From TrEMBL:
SUPFAM superfamilies: Subtilisin-like. PANTHER family: CEREVISIN-RELATED (PTHR43806:SF11), PEPTIDASE S8 (PTHR43806). InterPro entries: Peptidase_S8/S53_dom (IPR000209), Peptidase_S8/S53_dom_sf (IPR036852), Peptidase_S8_Asp-AS (IPR023827), Peptidase_S8_His-AS (IPR022398), Peptidase_S8_Ser-AS (IPR023828), Peptidase_S8_subtilisin-like (IPR050131), Peptidase_S8_subtilisin-rel (IPR015500). This is Subtilase family protein. Residues 162-446 form the Peptidase S8/S53 domain. It holds the Pfam family Peptidase_S8. It comes from Umezawaea tangerina. The active site is at residues 170, 211, 414. GO terms for biological process: proteolysis. Keywords: Hydrolase, Protease, Serine protease, Signal.
Length: 491
């Protein structure tokens, strides 16, 4: 059902200033004639906030920009393919003028209602240790995760094609890391931390977070006898920065990232995050439904352009088959826990249709305690690490990968997800004609079956820490199973 537009009074001269389009001015003037209650003139008390705006699909750019301007906003970027815009406005009535069912500001949610101060930096859910510097030492012996999915054996057959590009939608990739310089494609990289793509190196390079560089190394670190090696060292990667310096991934950042990846012909996107400011975005809640619709459209557009979206299930140890609303203000998203059940609430982007959602296992192939799960919500699993499951002969149960100027161990579904993206990249290398849905099906088929554990008492208390439902070939902990790089290139 198309989104309804609210009639509003606008000045024709304001419309003409934006587009110069007689079609746009006539259409918006017609809306003005339908309104019986004029809205007051624009005010500028500040602060200038950024808004995500959803239009009826098929809305032209001149008309969309004219309506934004007439509502006291400034168009920043419009994605006509999906009818979604990003706009800014210092006028607090902008959202009301556009309509709360069509416009939403994640920035506004991130400002304290009581003090007006921006909320503190978001806490990264992944667990990282102390980084070590780069050097000539071969550290692949520490990569138990690659052993678990038989990556080295796969490389003897196929280590990936340069025609395959994985977009790393994350916090940026170190452009100077020796393990990544050969794989990173600067020409396909962009920063999206305003909702509009910026191709400058500064815009897509890491600033406050090592997360994106770690993810990138798991996908495509060079197989050169030094440092670590990725799942698909022969493919290319692009840094698509969707995390701001405070650690937030607002919906306009993600929409920009998906659209950039689709327009620039990427094969896969890796999404090791959930979209802020909520863990669960509810389709029936004001504001949240704007986010849901905009992100859904962007992901579906990318899928239609042949991009496979792979995303983390999350680190909340939550049963995603029983979704709930966030229990606290979204301004403290790192502290949110689910409350009342609501089947309209989903983790974005992981629970969208056509997205491959990934849970995490430790070295013993058992679901990590932190990993979210759920029958019908998880498609595959991969090694994300667990410090309680340290492999024999190893020093750390987390995943070793690249970080800016060095290496570090980290645990999380964020670390599991790039293993799946890497295996998908190998599949795409072997099957260059495969569509995104076909790659998704191939991932399911090549996976190693992991049945539900007979006992999931992680703390030895006598009580189950989570309940795995389903059957051996498909269940809530592991989906279709553990990805297998060797099978991906040989079957």
């Amino acid at each position: 059902m198309p989104l309804l537009r609210r009639a509003r009074a606008v000045a024709v001269s304001a419309v003409l200033l934006v587009s110069g389009s007689q079609v746009a001015s006539a259409a918006v003037s017609a809306q003005a004639e339908q309104s019986s209650t004029p809205i007051a003139a624009c005010t500028q008390p500040g602060p200038v906030l950024r808004y995500l705006v959803v239009f009826d699909e098929g809305t032209s750019q001149p008309l969309a920009e004219a309506e934004i301007t007439a509502s006291c906003g400034t168009p920043l970027v419009y994605y006509p393919q999906i009818g979604v815009a990003v706009a800014t406005s210092p006028d607090p009535s902008f959202g009301r003028r556009m309509g709360p069912d069509r416009a939403y500001s994640a920035q506004a949610e991130a400002i304290s209602k009581h003090t007006g101060a921006v909320v503190r930096k978001k806490v990264d859910e992944t667990e990282m240790g102390k980084a070590s510097r780069t050097g000539a030492v071969d550290r692949t012996v520490e990569q138990w995760d690659m052993d678990l999915i038989r990556a080295a054996e796969a490389h003897a057959v196929n280590n990936g094609s340069r025609d395959v590009v994985v977009g790393v939608l994350d916090s940026g990739i170190d452009p100077n890391h020796p393990d990544l310089v050969g794989a990173l494609d600067p020409g396909l990289s962009a920063g999206c931390a305003t909702g509009k793509a910026d191709t400058s190196v500064a815009a897509w390079s890491p600033t406050t977070s090592a997360h994106g560089t770690h993810v990138a190394g798991t996908i495509a670190a060079a197989d050169d006898g030094r440092g670590t090696t990725g799942v698909a060292p022969g493919v290319r990667i692009a840094s698509v920065k969707v995390v701001d310096d405070d650690g937030y991934i607002y919906p306009e950042y993600a929409v920009c990232g998906f659209m950039w990846s689709a327009v620039h012909g990427m094969t896969i996107t890796n999404n090791s995050y959930f979209i802020d400011p909520w863990v669960f975005t509810c389709q029936n809640q004001v504001g949240q439904k704007v986010v849901y619709e905009a992100v859904r459209r962007a992901v579906e557009y990318a899928s239609g352009r042949g991009v496979l979206t792979v995303a983390a299930a999350g680190n909340g140890a939550t049963d995603l088959s029983k979704p709930g609303r966030d229990s606290q203000s979204p301004t403290n998203a790192e502290e949110v826990r689910p409350r009342a059940l609501d089947n309209t609430c989903l983790v974005l982007p992981a629970q969208l249709r056509s997205v491959v959602a990934v849970s995490s296992v430790g070295a013993d192939k058992v679901k990590a305690g932190y990993s979210s799960y759920g029958l019908g919500a998880v498609d595959l699993t991969a090694p994300g690490g667990d410090r309680k499951q340290v492999p024999e002969g190893k020093t750390d149960g987390c995943v070793l990968s690249t970080v800016p100027a060095g290496y570090d161990y980290s645990c999380g579904t964020s670390m599991a997800t790039p293993h799946v993206s890497g295996v998908a990249a190998l599949l795409a290398s072997v099957h260059p004609e495969a569509t995104a849905p076909e790659l998704s099906r191939m991932l399911n088929v090549q996976s190693e079956t992991l049945p539900c554990p007979a006992d999931y008492d992680l703390n030895g208390t006598g009580a189950q820490d989570a309940y795995c439902t389903g059957y051996s070939e498909y269940n809530g902990f592991y989906g279709h199973g553990l990805v297998d790089a060797l099978t991906a290139v040989t079957k």
